[in-house]
Structures are given as C-alpha cells and as structure tokens.
Amino acid sequence: MLFETYTGLVRNFPPQREGLFGQGLNDESGLWLAVDAHGYPSFLLAAQPTDARSDIELRFVGVRFSCKCEIVVENGDIVCGTYTIVRLEENDPDIVRLFLRLLEEAFCGDNAPRTNRAIGERILELANLFRQVENSQKDIIGLWGELQVIWAASSREAAARCWCQHQNAKYDFVCDGFAIEVKATLKPNRTHRFSLDQLRPSSDLTVFIASAQLVQAQGGRAVFELIDDILDSIGGADLRKAFLSSCLIKGGEDIYKSTVRFQFLARDIGIVYFAAADIPVPTVDHAAPISNVKFDVCLGALPEKAGDERARLVNMTYATA
Length: 321
Hints:
The chain is α+β, with helices and mostly antiparallel strands. Helix content is 31%, strand content 27%. It starts with a helix and ends in a 7-residue tail after the last helix.
C-alpha cells in the first residue's frame, strides 16, 4: 500500500533537505511517491512535456501537469524528469491514508489513466466523490454491519457486486430474485427500525433482514480494517473503486480516522437472518393519505433462518438453490 511507502519516506526524510524526497513505485510504471519537508505527499506520474493542460487547484489538493521536477532518492541521487504531480497539502496520517488509498485505486492498476486529460478527469471524479461525502449522513455502525455481511460471504467480490451504492437505497443488497436489508444495533435487544415499504414491498421481491447486535470492544475490528481486508479480496479495478466510494459515502471521509472497534455481542451467533414476511407490521388503510411509515420491532422472538437456508443467505445464493 502507498501509505506504508509514505510513512517510510517521512521517517527517512534527509535533514536540511528542500524539495521532494521520493521512491519509485515500479521500475516500468513511471509512478513515484514523494514527500516534502512538511510531510505533504505528492503522487507523480511520468508525463509528456507536450501534453499541456491547465493545472487544477482544489481544496487541499493541487494537480500540476507535465512539469519538470527533481526527486531526491534514498542514496542521495537526484532523478530529473517531466511529471504530472498530484499533491495533498495535509500531513494528518489518517487523511493521508485515505488520500493515498484513493490514488492507489485510481492510478495504480493495469488500465489506469496515463494521459493528462484522463488524469484530470479522474481527479475531478474524486473531488465530486468528496462533495457527495460532505453532504451525506454518516453511519459507522450501519456500515460496519454491511461490511460484515460482505466479509462473511464465500465470494466477497460477488457480495460487493450486490451491494447497493446509494446510501438511501431501499435495501442494502439486491441479489438474483431477493434482497437483504442489514440492521446493526448497540442495543441489548434485537430491536431495529423499519419502514413499511421495506418489509412489505409492492413487487414480488423476497426480502430478508440481516440483524447484527454489536458492542464496542478494544478487541473488535475498526471499519477501516474491514475495508482494507475486503479490498484485498476484490480483483476488478472498477469494482474496487465502486466499493471504496460506497464506503466513503456511507461512512464519511473520516473512516480511516475512526478508531472505534466493534464486535458481535455474541461471537458464536454473529449475524442472524429473518424473513421480512415474518416480521409484524402496522395496518395502514391503503386509501389513507399516509406514507413513509416507520416503526420499531424487536426480532428476538421471531423465527430465524438456520442451516442450509441461512448458509445460502450468507453466501447470497438463496435464489439459486
């Protein structure tokens, strides 16, 4: 990961040195990571001097296209070249970790953009993502529960493909012929809030509820640990990018800063699955001008999915049996 390279550069930064101190990421890729005396990271991509484009200045992030620069390497040599430089004017480790993770997903793949036009478009995509993050409601507990559902699946990549990216989607996972809504709570009982539309959809879609009772515990796992572990299980560049974007929108820009750790209240039970059709709902006259009905239900006494049926829900293959 780029963050490990970054921490090594900061640790080994030469004293009384001006300019960039960096390390090549791959002998043939033309990619570099560098830091300055303030610990601000710069991501450099080899560029053509004739590939002209106006520089980009965003909040905390600047992009200079096809500029000549010098990079000091560990043995004291100086590497000169023409690079497009993406620079973060921030040295907070958690912000840097997120910034570098996004750049890694955007520019370190086999089919990553290399022309200045494509690089600029990708940077503006990231800026737009952060605007969405700033305006979204953050729910670390809910995100932790959804990530655990992905983590438990036999194919995390397949589970990630079923994960709904929009934060306000009716269901968290939409699979082949069925949907799963994840509910996570810190309450001592299995009480969750539902909407009438979730439990009684107007379509023929079969709906299940994945219920997780959590506790904060130092021995648990933080959201960013789950994110990184799941990313390691996903091979496709587009899916990795979509997955990380969803995590940001749902959990906020501070997902790598949050050190809160959760674990299941009962580790041997984990996530419990229920059929939405088995959950009682209030009666509402269809002719009444009433909408957006929400209510709390304690699931503790309701029948749980078990055995092979539960396994097929965990692996999101319920409809294929």
